[in-house]
Structure formats: C-alpha cells, structure tokens
Design goal:
Order of helices and strands: HHHHEHEHEEHHH
Strand content: 5-15%
CATH class: Alpha Beta
Number of strands: 4
Largest sheet: 4 strands, mixed
Structural class: alpha+beta
Strand order of the largest sheet: 2-1-3-4
CATH superfamily: Glutaredoxin
C-alpha cells in the first residue's frame, strides 16, 4: 500500500474541520455509515474539538523537543468525526504538529476512504481509531504508529470490556471523557514526545 499517495490525498486539520461542519449542515457525518445517533455524536464532538482548540497548552520543553527534530515527518491520522476518542485526540495532535514549526505535517483521512489501510494497521485485532502512522517525509516509509488512545484511556476501555456486566456503556463513556477533560491532552503530548524521539532515531538509522 502506497502510504505516501494516501497521505497526499488526505485533509489537513483546517480542511477536516471544514468538511465536518459542512457534513453536519447536510445532516451527515464522515464515513459510509450514517445515522441520527452518529450525527448527534458528531455535533457533540465538534464542541469537544472547539474546546480543545482553545485550551490545549504545550510546555516550553515539549515545544522545544518537537521543533528541534532534525528530520521532518508526515503524520497520517485515520479517524472520523463521529468518534469520541478522535474528537479528544485529533486537536491535541494538531497542536503538536503546529508547535513543530513545520517538522510534522498532519493529514487526516476517514477510516472508510481506504478500508484496507485500517485492516493492515489494526490495534490488538480491532479496527480502532484514531490510528496515527508516522511516515518519513523523504521516502514515505512507515517509521512508527500510535493509537487508538493514550494508555490511561485505553486502560479504561479494557476495564469496561472486562466488566460489561457491571459497568454500563453510559458509565464507561462518562469515566472516559472525564479522564480526557482532566488530563487536558498532556498524556498524549508526553506519549508523542517519546514516540517522535523513536521515529527520529529510526530516520537517522535509515541507509
């Protein structure tokens, strides 16, 4: 699969937000599956993204690490507007990309646009989103992946799956998004600090 070509066809963050707004105006969301429930999720997620666009802050240390990376990379994010995790994560990754002063180029694509892509890059056997593929800017080679959510949020998800008989979906959703609200994107920023350092080492070691 030619990841570089897929990346070039994807949307930047501003284009993605515009697409989502336009789809909502037409009573739709991203992806092939459409329903009133997914539309309502999407409207709620726009509110989440708007809030994060205004509130996410990166420390000077994190900014310095991101912008000092010597090899630019492309960040291909597979995600959809109806997904609550995507809404909590994509704006944070956009802030990371913006802080890099051009070292990271973020593009976003719906899971249904290239279904074979998520089939290849599943998370623990699931087509979970968001999924981020970090590509070498020069060669298009895959360097690292991240997703579908930061470690503490993933632990909340796994705990719910193990205890579905005692934890309702509503209670799980409340716990998950409360964690996101309290964390304010800081765990994602920390995880990407480590991830991008790993990608940098892989780029340096390329023949």
């Amino acid at each position: 699969m030619e990841l570089d070509k897929i990346f070039k066809s994807a949307l930047n963050y501003a284009e993605y937000r515009e697409l989502v707004d336009n789809l909502i105006g037409g009573g739709k969301t991203t992806g092939n599956t459409q329903s009133d429930k997914l539309l309502e999720f999407t409207k709620l997620n726009v509110q989440r993204m708007n809030r994060l666009d205004k509130t996410v802050q990166l420390s000077p240390d994190a900014i310095n690490k991101f912008k000092s990376q010597s090899h630019p990379v492309n960040m291909l994010l597979i995600g959809d507007a109806w997904c609550g995790d995507c809404a909590q994560i994509i704006p944070v990754i956009n802030k990371i990309a913006m802080s890099s002063e051009g070292k990271y180029n973020l593009k976003i694509i719906s899971r249904d646009t290239y279904p074979d892509l998520i089939d290849i890059y599943q998370s623990n056997g699931a087509k979970a989103i968001p999924k981020v593929l970090i590509l070498c800017n020069e060669t298009g080679e895959l360097l690292c992946t991240w997703g579908p959510r930061p470690t503490p949020a993933q632990e909340i998800m796994l705990n719910w799956k193990k205890n579905k008989d005692t934890i309702t979906w509503e209670d799980f959703e409340k716990e998950l998004h409360l964690w996101y609200a309290r964390d304010k994107g800081q765990t994602i920023i920390n995880e990407f600090t480590q991830l991008m350092a790993k990608c940098e080492r892989k780029t340096i070691l390329q023949p």
